[in-house]
Amino acid sequence: MESRRSPLDDRHRALGATMTDFGGFEMPLDYGSVVAEHRAVREGAGAFDLSHLGTLRVTGSGAEQAVQRAFTNDVAALPAGRAHYTLCLTPDGGIVDDLLVYRLGWGLFVVPNAANAAAVHALVCECAAGVDADVADVKDELACIAVQGPASTDAVTAAGIDVGGLAYLDCAVLPMPAPGGSATGGADDGPPPEAGVLARSGYTGERGYELFVPAETAPTLWDRIVEAGAVPAGLGARDTLRLEMGYPLHGSDISPATSPVEAGLGWAVKPDTDFVGRDAYVARTAAGARRRLRGLRATGRGIPRAHCAVRRGGTDVGETTSGTFSPTLRIGVALAYLDPSVELGETVDIDVRGRAVSAEVVRPPFVPSSPKD
Domains along the chain? Predict the structure, then answer.
């Protein structure tokens, strides 16, 4: 199947981006230097095209009931104007996806990962059967631009978007200029077709904003954000940034074969709610984790990658799931599932292409950044 293209595709190609297939879309991997783009986000502001992400609007009097059944976090406790991190599980407790849910005045906005968007959409539709809930896939209508970094507020404001007063995980209807010229906001009974969603969220560990905007307006907004000083950044930098924070990547660090218990994501699971996979999750919690997702900070020379064996005293105790060179720390870092007997602070060896690289077992993040700052 031919890869789809983002509404910003021509902008990326004009900038000389290296394009790659990701989640069924041709997306920019980098614009020349992953390290330079990474540093731009940590030190200033970077702009990412995230139009490959799934986007669902769930509306109607039964919207909350459907979303509550589909995901692990307690959406009933989520007030309008706020978002939260949640999980979508299989009936046996594996992780189908990790995602954000935003509550607006008109209903719930669900943003799954690109590769899992169809599976999440299908489950929400299944959970909406028999209740007054409309589940609309609006991926073709919206583009997503993420502006991340300590200077992100200045860049977004200079581009004409008012983000004043937004705290971490706040969200709001993003008024966009209508064809007549004036901005139009959202109503409680549904968003106007030209309205987007503004959220103070991201996947980099820095202060940042995600702007879900009508596809036809995205190129002009992207131009304004870049003109305001945000450096275009690709998926390569997004991966190194998230790994420095220890954020799990679905398909690498979490999957249907892993449980929230193992991945340390129980904080996003509210077992008092009746979600798909609840009984299996409760049973796995009672049984205890057979392995735990930990951070590994290399103390020896070498860059760990995924699927490297981890050993303690010559005995295998786990395997890496993600690994990279940290542009901030200038050392290798990794996430790995380890035997629960391995304690934080211990030293282990990572088998990097047949060579043992010593590493300390740590609790991420690896760098002292926070999106709440």
Answer: 4-54+139-244 (3.30.1360.120), 56-137 (3.30.70.1400), 291-373 (2.40.30.110)
